[in-house]
Each structure stands twice: as C-alpha cells, then as structure tokens.
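Hello,

I think I submitted the pyridoxal-5'-phosphate job twice by accident. Can you confirm which output corresponds to this input? Input:
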Amino acid sequence: MTYAVDTRAVHAGREDLAELGVHALPLDFSTTYPMHDQVAAGAALGAFADGAASAATPVYQRLHNPTTARFEQALAQLEGTEAAVSFASGMAAITAVLQAACVLTGKKHVVAVRPLYGGTDHLLSIGLLGLSVTWVDQDEVGGAIRPDTGLVVVETPGNPTLSLVDIATVAIQAGDVPLMVDNTFATPVLQNPARLGAAYVVHSGTKYLGGHGDVLGGVVACAEHRAGALRQVRILTGAVLHPLGGYLLHRGLATLPLRVRAAQATAATLAVRLAVHRGISKVHYPGLPGSDPRGLIGRQMRGPGAMIAFETAGDAAAVVAALRLITPAVSLGSVDTLIEHPALLTHRLVDAEGKETGGITPNLLRMSVGLEDPEDLWADLDQALTAARAAVTVAAGSAPLPAAGAVSATSAYAVSGSAPVAA
Ligand SMILES: *Cc1c(COP(=O)(O)O)cnc(C)c1O
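Support: Only one job matched these inputs. Its output is below.
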C-alpha cells in the first residue's frame, strides 16, 4: 500500500524504529567500524567499491553511514524512486551526476536549458569537468542531442525567474540520453520528475528539505542501476554528507509538506498584491494568470510553489536595504522569508548571454516566502517598495545619492571577489 505524501514524509526511513525501541532517528558519528573478521570486512569494502547501497559493515564513513542512508531511503520514497544518494551539498550532487553520466561514460557533451542555478550554470560554462555544453530552449533539446551527449540538464521552476520546463516533453526529446531535473524549488511535495521521465532528480537539501537554514547537503533520487555509479563517485571524491546533516535533513522531511503548502499559500497572496504595486514593474510567479503558458500547474506541479521573483520599478538593491523583517540573504526554503539580488549574488558569475536568456535583469529580486504571517510580510514589502520609490523620485529632482543598500551590496561582494557562487 502506498501512503500519501504527508504520511510518507513523517514515516519514511523510520519503519524499523519501534522494533529498535527508539523514537528519534539514530545518529551514528563513527568514522570507522571494528570487525575482527577482516575477510568479511574486505568483502564489504569490495561491495561498496562496486556501488552497493549496504553491506555487512559500513567499514568506513566515506563508504557508508547508517544515518545518511536512512535519509536517502526516505527521500527516495518521497520522490518515488528506487534509490537516492546523498552528498555534501547540492553542488556536490550535481557534480557527481555530471561525473557519473558524462565523465565516466566518455560522453562529454551536455545539453542544458537556461535559467539554471548560478553555480550549475557556472560549473557547466567554465568546463571544470572537461565537458562542453549546448544551451537551448526547452523545445530545441531534441535537435541538440549528439552521439556524445551524456546528459540533459533542466531546472523547473528555474532559479531565479521561476520559468517552467515541461519535463515529460523534454524527456521524450532526450530519448536515451538521461535527463537531470533540479527539483530544489518544487520539492517532492509539489513535483516528482522521475514519474515524468527524469533519470536523475537533484535537490539542494540546504533549501526546503532541511528547511531551517542550518544544514548544507544535496541528494540525487534515481533508479538503483544509476545509483551505483553515483556512490562510486562519492567514495572517490569524498563529497559525503555528514551524519548530522543526514539527521537534520531527515528530520526536516517530516514537516516538509506542511511548510511548503503554508509558504505557498502566503506566496500566492503576496504575488497578487505585488503584481499591482506601483513600485514593481513585473512579477514572476507561476500561479499568476498568464505565467504558465504550457499549463504545467496541475499537470506537472501540484501548485505554484513558494518562490517569487519580481522586477522593481526603481533600484532593487535599495528595496532590499529598506526591508526590516524579511531576511536579506541568499539561499531559500527556510522558515523565514529570504530575499536576494540574483545579478549581484546568486547569478553574478553567469555570463552576459546567460543573464540575457535567463531573464536575470538588474532590477530582479528573488524572494523565498517563509512561514511568517502574510500581513506582516506584506507590510514590510509595501513600506520598502514605497520608500525606495520615494527615494528615486527625490534623487531624480536633486543630486543623485546612491542608496545605502546598493553601495553595501556591491562593496561587500568586492571583498570576496569572484568566489564560488552562493545559493
Ligand atoms: C542552492 C541551489 C543549488 C546548490 O546547492 P548547494 O547546497 O548550495 O550546493 C543547486 N540548485 C538549486 C536550484 C539551488 O537553489
């Protein structure tokens, strides 16, 4: 019998706890595992080296950890896949998929649809893994596939503009080439890409899965025949999720459906109000009329989600500087509402062409709606948008003063230079 997602979120990966006589998830920090039978230990090591999910002993934490393995089982149950493989971060998970699907197979060409998370875009663009990439529109994927194409990469809703990709249609175009879908924004509560033909479903667990802004992690949900290579890559690169991270991500799953739906309801309310605010020129939210031309809400996604992007009429950085309640920070999917400026931060390292095709404009802000009261959030947004608009009007009539937020956002970033992309 298959339980509903809310039930699975609470019980998955905990089936044996009553038998063990414990209620909370067991947390195992061991880095090594004693075994007097060295022959059996050697057989276990050999099994892990071959990509096995479990063996008679974990041997060593880089090969296996019972706490992270429980989280993996739970996430696989939420995504409806045979397996899941966890990693130290979302970027480590994406890198492992590229290594397994492209580097190990020698198929070093990737077809990708923009926009993608800035880190993924940058990783593909700079050729760090020796891969070449063809950027296409979602309707052009089929025509871009070559004999040496190892992977098709999409993200939906896309970071940061929330544009939607039709997963089933892209999977058909990809044919035998595996499709990777970054499902971070939708979460398994709203969308299950594997059911629509995706071979790899990737999450930055740092976001909604953890949900409280205190754990960095990533995970790939896939069929068991693909999971083995991902585990082999993880053993060799050492990009393992810490057991405490596995524990926190697993604990976060229990409240994931409630958090996502509550934040989504608030996002829908705010998006409608933002759309008619005078301080805003455009709102990107899949739930607004005209924002889902392919009719994917309902068919592919069970709701429009809790992420909103909008373009301000005036200086976007000044709007962020004027906020008092909403947290001005990168990352998303936390209990508190977070806002950031993609062109300055998360998508700073995306090249000019990528910014153009991805719709990453200078006045774009990305907001991850949290669990605060919607009226408190609206009051904060309204006062900040109004204050920033008033500042523009004043500046237009007198000496132009740079807004405090614009200056600090730029100079703060200059210190870290072109450091790897933030979330
Ligand atoms: C944050 C994010 C990532 C990267 O995840 P990390 O955990 O920061 O490495 C990948 N994809 C999307 C859509 C993200 O938002």
